[in-house]
UniProtKB/TrEMBL annotation, chain A:
Belongs to the binding-protein-dependent transport system permease family. InterPro entries: MetI-like, MetI-like_sf. This is Sugar ABC transporter permease. The chain crosses the membrane at residues 69-90, 102-123, 150-175, 196-219, 256-278. The keyword Transport applies. It is found in: Cell membrane. The keyword Transport applies. The lineage of its organism: Bacteria, Pseudomonadati, Pseudomonadota, Alphaproteobacteria, Hyphomicrobiales. Keywords: Cell membrane, Membrane, Transmembrane, Transmembrane helix, Transport. Residues 65-278 form the ABC transmembrane type-1 domain.
Length: 286, 279
C-alpha cells in the first residue's frame, strides 16, 4: 500500500466513524426538535417551530436559563479564585509539597456519584460529620436541600470542590512559564508579593486564564450529573437548568421534540462561546 | 517563582497553614468516605470521633454478596475497556492522518473535535436513546459504550493531534528510506515513540467512561445492565439509607482511580496541561 493510500484510508475510516457516532446523532437531535413525538419508538409528526415557541413561551424555560447562568457563573468564580490561590501556595517550596499537590488533585478523579453521595452523607440529618462539626462550633443548622438558596449553594459548593483541581493544576503548570527574572527585577524595585501577583503573574497568565474560564464555562453550563444527583433540579425548580429541563421533557414527560428543542438551544448558546474561543485562540494547524 | 530569600517565621507558619488547609479541604471527604465504610454500624450513627474504627467489613461483604454490585462493577469494567480500545484505534488514525499529510480542511477537522467535546450531553443522549430503541438495542452495554465514544473520541483526536504534531517527521522518513512502508514506519517507529501520549489518552478515556453517570442513566434501565455509578445512585433512592454500604460502594469505585493515579500521575498531569481534560 502506498504511503498516501495508508494515510487516506486512516483518515476516511476515522472520519466515517466520527460522522456516524457524533455528527449523525446531532443532526438527528436538531431535526427531532422540529417534530412532535411522544414516544421514542413512535412516528414523528412535523411540528415546524412549535416546540420552540412552546418552550420559549414557558416561564420554566427562562428560569432554567437564568439558573444555568447563576450556576456556571458561581462555580467558575470560586473555582478560579480558589484554584489560583491553591496554585500560588503549591508553587512555594515546603516539605511535603508533592504530597499536598497530589492530594489537591484527588477530587477531580472521583466520579460525580461518589462526591455527591459522600457530601449527602456528610450533611445527613443530625448525624452527618459536617452537621455535627458545624453545630459544635455554634453555626446554625443548614437545610441543604430544602430552601432554594441553600440548594443552589450546595450544588455550587460540590461542583467547586470537584473542579477546582483542574484550575489549580493548569495554573500551576502555567506559573512555571513566567520567567523568574521578572520577579527578581520587580523585587529589586521594592514591590511586595501582592503587587507582583497583580502586575506580573496575572498579566502574564491572562491567556491561559481566558482559556480556563471559557472551557469551564462551557462545561459547567452543560453539567447534568451533579445537579440531578443532588437536587434533581429542586426544590420546586430552584436548581433546574437547561440540561435538567431537557432531560425532564424528553425522559420524564416524553415530550421528545421539546427536550430536543431545549438541547438545541443550549447547543446554540454554547456554540457562541466556542466561536469566541476560536476567535481568541485560532488553531495552530501547521 | 522560586524564592531564594529565607522566609520569615510568620511567613513559614502562614505557608504551612495554607498547605494544611488545602490538604484537609481536598482529602477530608475522601478520608471520611473510607472511614465510614469500615466503621461498625452502632458507631457509624452515634460516634463523633474523627479517627477510624471500630472496624467492620460487613458493608463490603453485604455489598458483594447481597446486591448487584459485582455485576455492575464488571459492567463498568467492560464498558470502560471497550471504550478505551475503540478510542485508541480511531483517534490514532485520525490524528496521525491529519498531522502527516497536507489535507485541506484539517483545521476544520481538529476544531470540530474540540467543538464536539463541548456538546451538551442531552444533545447526544436524546438521539442516541431513540436510535438504540429503534434498533432494538436499548438497555445494552453497547449503547453506553457508543455514547461514551462521543466524548472520548474527540478528546483522543484533540490530544494526539497536539502530540503527533510535535514529533519530527524525519523519524518515519528515515525508516521509510530504509525500506519500511508507511504503515510499517507508523507501527514500528511512530507508535512506540508515542507511548506517553497514548497512555495519557487511555487514562482520560478510562476516567471519562468509568466516572460517567449521565449517559449510563439514560441508556440503561435494568439493574443487571447498570454501571456502578448508576447502580450506586439508585441504592440511595431505596427506602432505607444504608450509608455504610453506600460508602463502601463509593470507596470501591474510587480506589482503582487512585491506584492508577499513584502509578501514572506524570501522564495525568501532562495531559491536564496539554488540554486532555475531563469535563
Amino acid at each position: 500500500m502506498s504511503s498516501k493510500a495508508t494515510i487516506y484510508s486512516f483518515l476516511i475510516l476515522g472520519l466515517a466513524v466520527t460522522a456516524l457516532l457524533i455528527v449523525a446523532p446531532v443532526v438527528y437531535a436538531v431535526s427531532l426538535s422540529f417534530y412532535q413525538m411522544d414516544s421514542f419508538v413512535g412516528a414523528p409528526k412535523w411540528a415546524g417551530l412549535d416546540n420552540y415557541t412552546r418552550m420559549l413561551s414557558q416561564w420554566v424555560f427562562w428560569r432554567a436559563l437564568i439558573n444555568g447562568f447563576i450556576y456556571s457563573f458561581g462555580t467558575i468564580i470560586f473555582q478560579v479564585v480558589l484554584g489560583i490561590g491553591f496554585a500560588l501556595v503549591l508553587n512555594q517550596v515546603f516539605p511535603g509539597r508533592n504530597i499536598v499537590r497530589g492530594l489537591s488533585i484527588l477530587p477531580y478523579l472521583l466520579p460525580t456519584v461518589v462526591v455527591v453521595l459522600t457530601f449527602k452523607w456528610m450533611v445527613d440529618g443530625s448525624i452527618g460529620v459536617l452537621t455535627t462539626m458545624m453545630s459544635a462550633v455554634g453555626l446554625p443548622q443548614v437545610q441543604w436541600f430544602e430552601s432554594p438558596g441553600a440548594a443552589m449553594a450546595s450544588v455550587i459548593l460540590v461542583s467547586v470542590w470537584m473542579w477546582t483541581p483542574f484550575v489549580t493544576t493548569t495554573f500551576l503548570a502555567a506559573l512555571q512559564t513566567v520567567p523568574s527574572s521578572l520577579y527578581e527585577a520587580a523585587k529589586v524595585d521594592g514591590t511586595n508579593a501582592v503587587q507582583r501577583f497583580f502586575h506580573i503573574t496575572l498579566p502574564m497568565l491572562k491567556p491561559i486564564l481566558t482559556v480556563i474560564v471559557l472551557l469551564r464555562a462551557v462545561w459547567m453550563f452543560n453539567k447534568f450529573d451533579v445537579i440531578w444527583l443532588l437536587t434533581q433540579g429542586g426544590p420546586v425548580g430552584a436548581t433546574e437548568h437547561l440540561a435538567i429541563l431537557s432531560y425532564r421533557q424528553a425522559f420524564g414527560q416524553f415530550d421528545i421534540g421539546g427536550g430536543a428543542a431545549v438541547a438545541t438551544i443550549s447547543f446554540a448558546i454554547l456554540s457562541l462561546v466556542v466561536f469566541i474561543y476560536f476567535r481568541l485562540f485560532p488553531l495552530d494547524t501547521e | 517563582m522560586s524564592r531564594s530569600s529565607p522566609r520569615s517565621l510568620a511567613g513559614r507558619v502562614a505557608l504551612y497553614g495554607a498547605a494544611t488547609l488545602i490538604a484537609v479541604y481536598s482529602a477530608f471527604p475522601i478520608y471520611w468516605m473510607v472511614v465510614s465504610s469500615t466503621r461498625a454500624p452502632e458507631a457509624l450513627i452515634n460516634s463523633t470521633s474523627l479517627l477510624p474504627g471500630p472496624f467492620t467489613w460487613e458493608y463490603y461483604t453485604n455489598l458483594l454478596e447481597l446486591t448487584d454490585y459485582p455485576t455492575q462493577f464488571l459492567n463498568s469494567l467492560i464498558v470502560a475497556a471497550v471504550t478505551v480500545a475503540v478510542t485508541m484505534v480511531f483517534s490514532i488514525m485520525i490524528a496521525y492522518a491529519v498531522t502527516r499529510h497536507r489535507i485541506r480542511g484539517k483545521g476544520i477537522i481538529v476544531g470540530a473535535m474540540l467543538y464536539a467535546y463541548m456538546f451538551p450531553p442531552l444533545l447526544i443522549a436524546i438521539p442516541m436513546f431513540s436510535i438504540f430503541a429503534k434498533l432494538g438495542l436499548g438497555d445494552t452495554l453497547a449503547s453506553v459504550i457508543v455514547s461514551h465514544l462521543t466524548l472520548t473520541l474527540p478528546l483522543g483526536v484533540w490530544f494526539l493531534w497536539g502530540f503527533f504534531k510535535s514529533m519530527p517527521f524525519e523519524l518515519e522518513e528515515a525508516a521509510m528510506v530504509d525500506g519500511c512502508t508507511r504503515l510499517g514506519a507508523f507501527l514500528r517507529v511512530v507508535l512506540p515513540l508515542s507511548l506517553p501520549g497514548l497512555i495519557t489518552v487511555a487514562i482520560f478515556s478510562f476516567l471519562l467512561s468509568w466516572t460517567d453517570y449521565t449517559y449510563a442513566l439514560i441508556m440503561i434501565g435494568s439493574d443487571a445492565n447498570k454501571t456502578v455509578p448508576v447502580g450506586l445512585a439508585s441504592m440511595v433512592g431505596s427506602f432505607d439509607l444504608r450509608w455504610g454500604e453506600i460508602m463502601a460502594g463509593s470507596t470501591l469505585i474510587a480506589l482503582p482511580l487512585f491506584g492508577a493515579f499513584a502509578l501514572l500521575s506524570q501522564y495525568f498531569i501532562q495531559g491536564l496541561g496539554a488540554g486532555a481534560v475531563k469535563g
